[in-house]
Each structure stands twice: as structure tokens, then as C-alpha cells.
Design brief:
The protein is built from 16 helices and 16 strands. It is of the alpha+beta class and 460 residues long. It folds into four domains: 86 residues, 2-Layer Sandwich (Uridine Diphospho-n-acetylenolpyruvylglucosamine Reductase, domain 2); 116 residues, Uridine Diphospho-n-acetylenolpyruvylglucosamine Reductase, domain 3 (2-Layer Sandwich); 109 residues, Alpha-Beta Plaits; 87 residues, Alpha-Beta Plaits. Helix 8 packs antiparallel against helix 10. The structure holds (2R)-2-hydroxypentanedioic acid and zinc ion. Zinc ion (ZN) binds next to strand 15.
Length: 460
């Protein structure tokens, strides 16, 4: 370690694994945004809470920024290290520490992958219900830092609902043990919820106690072809009324086009403007009959023109693939991503305004809509036209985002539903949070992280 600051860190923490290998700097310095060139000082791989505390104290002394790093599947630049920061990867802190059958909690280290949490819960015949396509590579620490949502929010809520306790190292190196798994704890400010969604700007999550729940009854997946935008929310209202919904996701014909071009099987012979993937409980024959009746009712109303209901787990998985494979299928087109939300009741009016805006602003550009429409959360991916310089493309899209912000404002929505603010959405934080709120956020940040070493430049 030729850098004297790193030599000092190695002296203070002789067992700490550090790397300045170019491949490691590149790999750990970026997330899925690919917009910034990674340029971290080094990568630290702590194996213990004490090492995390030591790193934070060293960073305060040296004035080095720290970027906490999970699976780096983020889409807002929250885990990017492009300015000589030390990346603190939690990869080595990836174990299950405890399971409590009475509390029905699983205590884990932050670097464990979401999928490994799912598997650990299942070993005890329980589930951890937060789920999304990046499950194999994202880590629970990152899920907590961004209050990750995903495909089952409609039934189970966001990550926040499932965190019963957190251990956190603050920006001064203090170790906090927050809430300790208590169901009831009316003792003042709940710092656990402050840390959830704070995007690594207040401290580093070093342990989490997660609530688990009973598995749902057997389910089926339905893929519906929808002829018009105004039918989408009618189908949703009817589905919520007559089915026990576990997921309700939508995508457009352009999304299907890309996911099929990427290897998925085309579900219908004809193209349709919109599709819905709905998952619902089928505990008995009556529920199965109710699902068919729902489908036929929607057909009769003209809200749905075609559909498939899964008859096996393999078929359910292949229908889910049509939705879950979208992000990966778009990645080669360097998409500019919007992740917006409005109240569920505002979705129809908002979508109509959005469609007008996007058609006017992107007349010749491939714009792909999909997302968690049952939560009021839409992902709008604008694909970069071939040959267009990326910086020019981003600048054009950011101009449209500023217009989009006005539309969102009119409908009371948010510029970031679930991906976080990070670097990507920073210019528009003020469109969702008032000046007074942002001033309070800065004040809180200054208390938790007085030297500004925690994920500098992100969120605020
Ligand atoms: C999803 O819902 C993720 O699949 C990614 O939030 C969304 O790629 C996107 O824009
Ligand atoms: Zn999403």
C-alpha cells in the first residue's frame, strides 16, 4: 500500500483485507448505472463489526469518504465510488447469525444475498417476503439502505416492514443496537427507520434482525393481454376485489418485444398494447373457480382480450420471466431510467398525462414502460438511440425529467419510488421533499456524520 493513508489503515487494522487491484477497483466502484467511471482509493473487506468501526474512525481522522457496498445492483448511483473514496464492501460479512422460532426472526450479516435470506427462511418453513429480480446478487444491507420494494409490495410492503432490529455503525464509529427485535417499543425516535432508506449516508448496517412470516397458500400466475391503458386499473380494481393478490405487475408491448428478443418465449400470437402478470392464492377449488370467473368477467367487459393461467410451477416461472427479465433485456440499450410513483388512485390520470408528455418529447425513441402498477410505481426506461453520444442522451433525458417532475408534482407523486436518490435523482430531490424537510435531513446527517465521510455526495 503505497498511499500513506492506506498504510496507516493497514497498521491500525492488520487483519483487514484491502485491495488496490485495478479489477477490484472497477468492480466495486460502480453499480448498475454504468454512468460514472469508478475511481476509488481502495477496497476494504471487513470481516467483523470492530473492523467496520476501525475503518470509520480511520476515515474520520484522514478525511476519506466511505462508500458502503453491497451487491451494487442499485440503479441510482448510490454505491458508486468515483472520487477517491474507500469502498467498504460487506461481501465477507455474509452469514446467518441466528434464527428464533418464537420471535420468527432471522438475524443476518449485511452482506448476505437476498436469495440466501429466502433460502434460510424456507429451511424453517417460513418466508422472508421481500422479493425482486436482483435477488441472487443484491445484499440485505443494500436492501435496507434503500428500503427496497419489488414485486410483492402490494401484499407485504417494503423492506421497512420486515426489519425488527438493526446494528449500525454511525459516521463517528459508534455502534448502535436499534430496537433489538421488539414488537412494541414506544421509547422515542425510532432510529431504525431513519437508517432504513438512508442510502449509506448516516452509517453502515452491520447486522439485521428480519421478521419472517408463514408461507402463503399455493398460487397461480395469470398473464393478461390488455387492449388499452384505461382498462389496466379497471382490471386491477376487479382483481383486488375478487382474488387474493400477491403481485400485480404490468408491462407494455415494447417491454415484451425486448424480453422476447432476449430469449423469453412469446406468450400470445398477436401483439397487444399492455400486459399484466398477476399472482394470486389458490387454496382450493373455489378460489380457482373465482380466478376463472374474474378472467371471464374482464373478457366480457372488453378490458382483457387474451390470457393464460399457469398450470404448473414451470409455467408460472416462465410467465414471471416475461416481467422479471425486462431490466436485463434492456441493459444493452443503455437505458435512462425513471422510477416514479403516484397514489394508486392517481395512476390513470397520471399515466394519461405521462403518455402525452413522452410521445411529444421522445417521438422517435424507444420508451419502455413497466412496473408495479398495483403500488402506483412505474418504471419508464428510455433506450439510447444507436450512435447517439451517451452524455448527450443523458442531458436530453434529464431535460425531459424536469418536465416529468412537473407532471408528477401535479399528481402528488415522487421522482423516486424505490430505486433511491443516489446521484441520479439528486437534482430533483427538491421536487418531492420540502425545503424544511431537506434542511432537517442535512441537520440529521450532520449529527450522525459530522465530518461528512459517509457516502459523500449521495442523496443530499
Ligand atoms: C424492477 O421492477 C426493478 O424490475 C428495475 O425495479 C426497474 O430496470 C428498471 O427500471
Ligand atoms: Zn421495480
Amino acid at each position: 500500500m503505497t498511499d500513506p493513508r492506506l498504510a496507516e489503515l493497514a497498521r491500525l487494522l492488520p487483519d483487514l483485507k484491502l485491495s488496490t487491484e485495478p479489477g477490484d477497483l472497477e468492480h466495486h466502484g460502480r453499480d448498475w448505472t454504468r454512468r460514472w467511471t469508478p475511481a476509488p482509493l481502495a477496497i476494504a473487506y471487513p470481516a467483523t463489526v470492530a473492523e467496520v468501526q476501525g475503518i470509520v474512525r480511520w476515515a474520520n481522522g484522514q478525511g476519506v469518504g466511505l462508500v458502503p457496498s453491497g451487491g451494487r445492483t442499485g440503479l441510482s448511483g448510490g454505491a458508486v465510488a468515483a472520487h477517491g473514496e474507500l469502498v467498504v464492501t460487506l461481501d465477507r460479512m455474509n452469514r446467518v447469525l441466528d434464527f428464533d422460532p418464537i420471535d420468527r426472526t432471522l438475524t443476518v450479516q449485511p452482506g448476505i444475498a437476498l436469495e440466501a435470506v429466502h433460502n434460510a427462511a424456507r429451511e424453517h418453513s417460513l418466508i422472508y417476503p421481500v422479493d425482486f429480480a436482483a435477488r441472487g446478487s443484491c445484499q440485505i444491507g443494500g436492501n435496507i439502505a434503500t428500503n427496497a420494494g419489488g414485486i410483492r409490495v402490494i401484499r407485504y410492503g417494503n423492506t421497512r416492514q420486515w426489519v425488527a432490529g438493526l446494528k449500525v455503525v454511525t459516521g463517528t464509529g459508534e455502534l448502535l443496537d436499534l430496537n433489538r427485535g421488539l414488537v412494541k417499543n414506544a421509547s422515542g425516535y425510532d432510529f431504525r427507520h431513519l437508517v432504513i432508506g438512508s442510502e449509506g449516508t448516516l452509517g453502515i448496517v452491520v447486522e439485521a434482525t428480519l421478521s419472517l412470516t408463514s408461507p402463503p397458500p399455493p398460487s397461480q400466475v395469470m398473464l393478461l393481454a390488455i387492449p388499452a391503458m384505461d382498462a389496466l386499473m379497471k382490471v386491477f380494481a376487479e382483481a383486488r376485489h375478487s382474488l387474493s393478490l400477491g403481485a400485480f405487475e404490468f408491462f407494455t408491448d415494447r417491454a415484451l418485444h425486448h424480453v422476447v428478443a432476449h430469449g423469453a418465449r412469446r406468450p400470445f400470437e398477436e401483439d397487444h398494447p399492455f400486459y399484466v402478470v398477476a399472482e394470486f392464492d389458490v387454496p382450493d377449488a373455489a378460489a380457482e373457480a373465482a380466478a376463472l370467473a374474474f378472467f371471464e368477467f374482464c373478457l366480457g367487459e372488453g378490458w382483457v382480450v387474451d390470457g393464460v393461467i399457469s398450470s404448473s410451477e414451470a409455467q408460472a416461472a416462465s410467465l414471471w420471466r416475461l416481467r422479471e427479465g425486462i431490466t436485463e433485456s434492456l441493459a444493452p440499450h443503455k437505458p435512462y431510467k425513471n422510477d416514479v410513483s403516484v397514489r394508486i388512485s392517481a395512476v390513470p390520470a397520471f399515466m394519461a398525462d405521462m403518455q402525452t408528455l413522452l410521445a411529444a418529447e421522445y417521438p422517435d425513441v424507444d420508451v419502455v414502460w413497466f412496473g408495479h402498477i398495483g403500488d402506483g410505481n412505474l418504471h419508464i426506461n428510455v433506450l439510447k438511440p444507436e450512435g447517439l453520444d451517451n452524455a448527450v442522451f443523458v442531458a436530453q433525458c434529464e431535460h425531459v425529467t424536469s418536465l416529468l417532475v412537473d407532471t408528477l408534482h401535479r399528481h402528488g407523486g415522487s421522482i423516486s419510488a424505490e430505486h433511491g436518490i443516489g446521484l441520479v435523482k439528486k437534482p430533483w430531490l427538491g421536487s418531492v421533499r420540502s425545503e424544511a424537510e431537506i434542511a432537517l435531513m442535512r441537520g440529521i446527517k450532520a449529527v450522525w456524520d459530522p465530518n461528512g465521510i459517509m457516502n459523500p455526495g449521495k442523496l443530499l
